[in-house]
Amino acid sequence: MRVLVAGLGEKKEFGLRSLRDAGHFVGVIDLAHRIPVSLVDWWRAGDRFSVESMLAAARSADFTWDAVVCWEELSTDLAREVAERLGVPATRMPAGHFRHKGVMHARLRELGVPTPQLGVAHTLAECADLIDGRYPAVVKPTDYGGSGGVRIVRGPQELSEAFAFALEAARGGQVAVDRYVCGKEFSVESVTWAPGKTEVITVTEKHLSRPPYFAELGHVVPAVLPRAEREQLERAVVQVLDALGMEAGVSHAEFRLTPDGPLLMEVAGRPAGDQVPRLVSLATGWNLYLAELAAVVGSTVSPEVPAAQSAAIRFFNGDGRTPFRHPVDLEESLAAPFAGVLRELSYSEPEGTVTDAPRGIGGRNGHAVLAGSADEVREALRVLDDGRPIYQGAE
């Protein structure tokens, strides 16, 4: 099958390998520097924010495409329009419901699904009116992803800076205003084979930086939590996907687990970023990229035998003042607790570099991917973090 990825995103090598290893011909349209050309069969540079640019690039091939997918959050609606104009299948969901947080949460409110959103604002004054003195609140762009532009506001003196921070990332000039919700944060990875037929693949434990920015520091698959709470999350994601009209594709939904049950923060109609699909494959045997393609073309796939009981990724970040120290060297990687558990280790900054604390998806100094038993993975994470507790949003 000739599969076009119209909008690739960062660090999607696992997805490209998955499609090619399954025997598919893989093409990519994105910025040239983001395309690992050795992993694709065809590529063109294109503006991932322009339907006409992506369409012209797709039509420049001397063959026809069989399906279109998109792994870049900012391009998902555009990619579906490209597919429609090419006359080939793509993920099926209403435009805007999985991209624009204002549209998303308005739809949920209409159907009586609980949501933390207070509304959408174009100006600082509208932000203040929506909050109406109910602090803390959260201000975020309506049309961005990966925790970019998100900030907690604890009082009116912080609102102006938070609004400017969110607006800078908001392509459409709007910000969403939420009431702040306490509770541990999880994501739920699912595949919808057909309307009303969603299969929950796994629940992922999210590790965050402390407020005010909520940058994602890592993920663990599967999340360790009581069965009752897991089932609550599974029911909640099916309710959300049905309400938003997901018809076919893979989704990544982020919830906070509150005393009153799960509350949706946002949901994306694509596989998760941050190498979460790789973790899912290692720990569950499910390949989300192959599941997405199968759903798009009206087929199904099944999981393989998982390689490990648990898998995790930890990102190394700066704090703006401490020289960066590589947590693991080559000799240490061959000894406990990393021997047989450490699957990938990468540093983007040398030791001694001082980098700012992350305010979104940027500011990372490297990462480690781990896979093994649940105890082995937890111990390796503990050593990587020097025993420091990792914030999950419970406060």
Account of the 3D structure:
This protein is 28% helix and 27% strand. A hairpin with a 7-residue loop joins strand 10 and strand 11 (216-221). Helix 2 (51-59) packs across helix 3 (76-86). With 395 residues, it is α+β, with helices and mostly antiparallel strands. The chain has 11 helices and 16 strands.
List keywords for this structure.
single chain, 28% helix, alpha+beta, 395 residues, eight-stranded antiparallel sheet, 16 strands
Topology, pairings included?
Elements (H helix, E strand, L loop, with lengths): L1 E5 L6 H9 L3 E6 L11 E4 L5 H9 L7 E3 L6 H11 L14 H10 L6 E5 L2 H8 L5 E5 L9 E3 L5 H11 L5 E5 L4 E11 L2 E12 L7 E6 L5 H18 L4 E10 L2 E8 L7 H9 L3 H9 L13 E8 L12 H4 L8 E6 L16 E9 L1 H11 L11
Parallel strand pairs: 1-2, 1-4, 2-3
Antiparallel strand pairs: 5-8, 6-7, 6-8, 9-10, 9-12, 10-11, 11-14, 12-13, 14-16, 15-16
- Quick check: average pLDDT? 94
Major β-sheet annotation = 8 strands, antiparallel
Q: Give the N-terminus to C-terminus distance in angstroms.
A: 48 Å
Give the H and E element order. Answer: EHEEHEHHEHEEHEEEEHEEHHEHEEH
Binned strand content:
25-35%
Total count of strands? 16
Shape: globular
Number of helices: 11
Low-confidence segments, given as residue ranges, are none
